[in-house]
Design a protein that fits this description.
- The protein has helices at 27-44, 112-123, 125-128; strands at 16-19, 22-25, 50-56, 59-67, 70-79, 86-92, 97-100, 109-110.
- It is of the alpha+beta class.
- α1 (27-44) crosses α2 (112-123).
- The termini are far apart.
- The relative contact order is 0.16.
C-alpha cells in the first residue's frame, strides 16, 4: 500500500512562503515593512532615532531606538499573509515576553503603523508626550 502524504496547499502568491502552514513574509515584504515603519516613526515620533524589526518565522520583533545605543523592544508583529494587516502583541519588559493585545480600535490585528503607535504610547511615554509631526508637511 502506498504511503499517504499530507496535502499542502500550493500558493500562487510569490511573496507568501509557508512553513508548516504558518505564512512567512518574503524578503521584499520584510524590507518594505521595515522602511515603511521607520518612515512612519520619523514623521510621527520625532523623538525616535530609528525603528528596526528582526524576524523569526512569521514574527517581526519591533525595537524603537531613542538613541544610537538605547533600543527598547515595544511589540511583535505577526505576519498573517497580507502586507497591510498584522497580528499584534505588546512586549512586557518585566518578563521579556510578548502578550497578544488589542489595538485601540478593539481589534487584535491591524496596520503595522497602528501597532507601532499603540506600543510607543504605552512603552515610551516621554516620546509619546511630544507633539506629533503633521504628516502633510
Amino acid at each position: 500500500m502506498p504511503q499517504e502524504r499530507a496535502c499542502r496547499q500550493v500558493t500562487t502568491r510569490p511573496e507568501l512562503i509557508t512553513l508548516d502552514a504558518v505564512p512567512v513574509p518574503s524578503k521584499r515584504v520584510k524590507d518594505d515593512l521595515a522602511a515603511d515603519l521607520d518612515h512612519h516613526a520619523s514623521q510621527v515620533w520625532p523623538g525616535l532615532e530609528e525603528v528596526t524589526i528582526r524576524w523569526r518565522g512569521s514574527h517581526g520583533y519591533v525595537t524603537a531606538w531613542t538613541s544610537e545605543d538605547d533600543g527598547v523592544p515595544v511589540c511583535r508583529l505577526e505576519y498573517l499573509g497580507f502586507d497591510d494587516v498584522y497580528g499584534f502583541a505588546l512586549h512586557d519588559p518585566a518578563t521579556d515576553t510578548y502578550t497578544h493585545s488589542l489595538l485601540p480600535d478593539g481589534h487584535p490585528e491591524g496596520s503595522p503603523q497602528d501597532a507601532l503607535d499603540c506600543a510607543i504610547r504605552l512603552h515610551l511615554t516621554g516620546i509619546a508626550d511630544q507633539p506629533l509631526n503633521d504628516e502633510d508637511d
